[in-house]
Amino acid sequence: MRIIRFVNDGFAQLAAVTDSGQIFALPQSDFLALVKEADAKAISPLALVFNTIDGSEAFKGQVEELELLVPIEAPEVWAAGVTYERSRDARNYEATEGRLDASTFYDKVYDAVRPEIFFKSTAARTVGPGGEVQLRSDSVWQVPEPELGLVLNAKGEIVGYTIGNDMSCRDIEGENPLYLPQAKVWKRSCSLGPAIRLAETVDNPYNLQITSRIYREGEKAVEGTANTNQLKRKLEELTEYLIRDNELFDGTVLLTGTCIVPPNEFTLAHGDRIEIEITGIGKLVNHVVGAGN
Ligand code: DO4
Ligand code: MG
């Protein structure tokens, strides 16, 4: 069962999408309201959705035909880094100008007990499905980072799964790790969507296939695949560190790191189309616009 938001008669409508693709309106204002109502009734969110849609009429049409909104206006988006071997190798490459024999702090963090977790975005900097992600004006090496996103409640519990794009500037980060916030956080540098999969309906979050494609002038320029079974850390390990001595807000999203990195000579350009697909969650599509657009 997936939860979406879309524009219905000019208003944001929460809806449930069944595994067979049927769409049912939900009365709650947003995803966390649904989770909290289920909590208050001491039933699971899935049971609440089934109770609500039982006997009601499905919307006509398919999800692809709707004007989708970001499935959650996450007050904060955080991200974990170097959680996959592929990410560690890519960071080493950009930090050492390709001298892969060099040992770096990326090697250390990959093996350390404490994971890398950084602040990524706010609702205002985050775009939804079909939205435009923006390039930085002072970077010449920019890539999308396709990541599994954890939707958390204020207690740090995983209540849903979504897809995130942690847009990144490899040259800025590679120049100096202290530039990380500038390599990661700017206007429209994050996207989430298209849906949230209820956590209880995901049997094994460590076996989700991730596929990413970048199209340029209608042609596929880059494609990569990965699986969450390659993740070095446990999801609870990441959420535990995020919540430690911290104050979390309902609907916080934690991105879990990337395992798909385009070839080193690739950089995003205005007009590119990015697709990120994760089994059971959907396909997040975004368009790239140059700085200042
Ligand atoms: O170490 C910097 C960030 C790494 C990252 O964003 C990732 O591995 O996904
Ligand atoms: Mg990342």
TrEMBL record:
Keywords, alphabetical: Lyase, Metal-binding
Domain Fumarylacetoacetase-like C-terminal, residue spans: 90-289
Known EC number: 4.2.1.141
Regions that span the bilayer: none
Gene3D superfamilies for this protein: Fumarylacetoacetase-like, C-terminal domain
Any one GO MF annotation of this record: lyase activity
Top-rank taxon, per record: Bacteria
One Pfam assignment: FAA_hydrolase
Family membership: Belongs to the FAH family.
PANTHER family linked: 2-DEHYDRO-3-DEOXY-D-ARABINONATE DEHYDRATASE, FUMARYLACETOACETATE HYDROLASE DOMAIN-CONTAINING PROTEIN 2A-RELATED
Protein name per UniProt: 2-dehydro-3-deoxy-D-arabinonate dehydratase
